[in-house]
Amino acid sequence: MASSGAGIQELMAAETRASQIVAEARMGRGDRMKQAKAEAQELIDSYRAEKQEEFNNMVLSKGGSEGSASAKLQADTNKEVQEMQGQFQKHAQKAVDVLLSKCCEVSLEVPTARVRATQKEAGIPSMM
């Protein structure tokens, strides 16, 4: 019977060691994942910086037209904004009138589908 108790103790010790090994493996895996994530982020950041530098160089090589293109874009934008404001002023009252007419227009007629549904719920046979 003593050997049985020793065998159980040995199994419990082995189980404890196994759980420790698994816990260490999980921690190691987590550390490796964190390290891989950090390395990937560094790689992404360096690639982004490289591409941004290429873009900046390309923009600088285009050079002189940058100011005129920006001014033209700003002028076009201002023109479109003015047109939109004119359209708004032109149609604002019409839109308000339509909204008011729809809000103030009340129909007192009950839809037939609603009447049928109410009759069905109440157990009244429909006459339609």
Describe this structure in words.
There is one protein chain. By secondary structure, this protein is mainly α. It is 88% helix and 0% strand. It is built from three helices and no strands. The chain has helices at residues 2-62, 65-104, 112-122. The mean pLDDT is 86.
- Envelope shape: flat
| N→C terminal distance | 91 Å
> Helix/strand/pairing class, anyone?
mainly alpha
Q: State Rg.
A: 39 Å
Low-confidence stretches: none
Secondary structure tally: strands: 0
Number of helices: 3
User: Average pLDDT, to the nearest integer?
Assistant: 86
Largest sheet: none
Strand content: under 5%
- What is the element string, with H for helices and E for strands? HHH
Helix content: over 70%
Which labels suit this protein?
128 residues, mainly alpha, 3 helices, 88% helix
Helices and strands, with pairings:
Layout: H1 2-62, H2 65-104, H3 112-122
Could you give a quick summary of the protein structure above?
The chain is an all-alpha fold and 128 residues long. The chain has helices spanning 2-62, 65-104, 112-122.
